């Protein structure tokens, strides 16, 4: 895959490989990566270059599809495992196994379509990206992806979060000092702050306050919002994007403990 492509910060993706080796034509492989361009090279160079054992000597491989936008590596790895093992996932127990005349590639897409309609994945700000458009297929009728998940085309390049010259985070991401929540009008500390994604908007709010604002039109009992409007500029915001771009909000302790306000979202995933 060429290194050029759309730049995406904080990249966590789960991809689908397709073998173009005549001997293994149609074989597929599902994996997780933070750098798709590097990962496809590893697969095609074999285990000695970091590729997976199951893809070694069965290539060349094409990375044809990647799902990205996961808030962290744990979320992406859980999605990868469920996609690889749909009949072992408690979220996908009702899915039918591979049909007798069904191609492996089509089965992978059918499982993916089901996953994107299943919580917690259905509420994440995921992007469905066809890296190789010639392999593109529509999801089965009635199993289309949620409307908030865009379908993109072409290569993608992972990019680290931009930093200033002195190695600190950019001024926009810097959260030194407290400020005032624009919803409850009380002081909000740096570790509990949320900001609008629009560069021209100065909205700041408590995590809980903003979640409550975005949940006002959701059914009673909903804990984590999917999307909502900014209380200052009224732009539409995806909660998953706010979480993913807030540095440190998915802190891991021994791989299990997370910040209290994101715990419900992560616990809905398969372990």
Automatic annotation (TrEMBL):
<protein>
    <recommendedName>
        <fullName>Structure-specific endonuclease subunit SLX1 homolog</fullName>
        <ecNumber>3.1.-.-</ecNumber>
    </recommendedName>
</protein>
<keyword id="KW-0234">DNA repair</keyword>
<dbReference type="InterPro" id="IPR035901">
    <property type="entry name" value="GIY-YIG_endonuc_sf"/>
</dbReference>
<dbReference type="InterPro" id="IPR013083">
    <property type="entry name" value="Znf_RING/FYVE/PHD"/>
</dbReference>
<dbReference type="InterPro" id="IPR000305">
    <property type="entry name" value="GIY-YIG_endonuc"/>
</dbReference>
<keyword id="KW-0227">DNA damage</keyword>
<dbReference type="Pfam" id="PF21202">
    <property type="entry name" value="SLX1_C"/>
</dbReference>
<keyword id="KW-0862">Zinc</keyword>
<dbReference type="GO" id="GO:0017108">
    <property type="term" value="F:5'-flap endonuclease activity"/>
</dbReference>
<feature type="domain" description="GIY-YIG">
    <location>
        <begin position="10"/>
        <end position="93"/>
    </location>
</feature>
<keyword id="KW-0863">Zinc-finger</keyword>
<keyword id="KW-0233">DNA recombination</keyword>
<keyword id="KW-0378">Hydrolase</keyword>
<dbReference type="InterPro" id="IPR048749">
    <property type="entry name" value="SLX1_C"/>
</dbReference>
<comment type="similarity">
    <text>Belongs to the SLX1 family.</text>
</comment>
<keyword id="KW-0540">Nuclease</keyword>
<dbReference type="GO" id="GO:0033557">
    <property type="term" value="C:Slx1-Slx4 complex"/>
</dbReference>
<dbReference type="InterPro" id="IPR050381">
    <property type="entry name" value="SLX1_endonuclease"/>
</dbReference>
<feature type="zinc finger region" description="SLX1-type">
    <location>
        <begin position="181"/>
        <end position="233"/>
    </location>
</feature>
<keyword id="KW-0255">Endonuclease</keyword>
<comment type="function">
    <text>Catalytic subunit of a heterodimeric structure-specific endonuclease that resolves DNA secondary structures generated during DNA repair and recombination. Has endonuclease activity towards branched DNA substrates, introducing single-strand cuts in duplex DNA close to junctions with ss-DNA.</text>
</comment>
<dbReference type="GO" id="GO:0008270">
    <property type="term" value="F:zinc ion binding"/>
</dbReference>
<keyword id="KW-0539">Nucleus</keyword>
<dbReference type="Pfam" id="PF01541">
    <property type="entry name" value="GIY-YIG"/>
</dbReference>
<dbReference type="GO" id="GO:0008821">
    <property type="term" value="F:crossover junction DNA endonuclease activity"/>
</dbReference>
<dbReference type="GO" id="GO:0000724">
    <property type="term" value="P:double-strand break repair via homologous recombination"/>
</dbReference>
<dbReference type="InterPro" id="IPR027520">
    <property type="entry name" value="Slx1"/>
</dbReference>
<comment type="subunit">
    <text>Forms a heterodimer with a member of the SLX4 family.</text>
</comment>
<keyword id="KW-0479">Metal-binding</keyword>
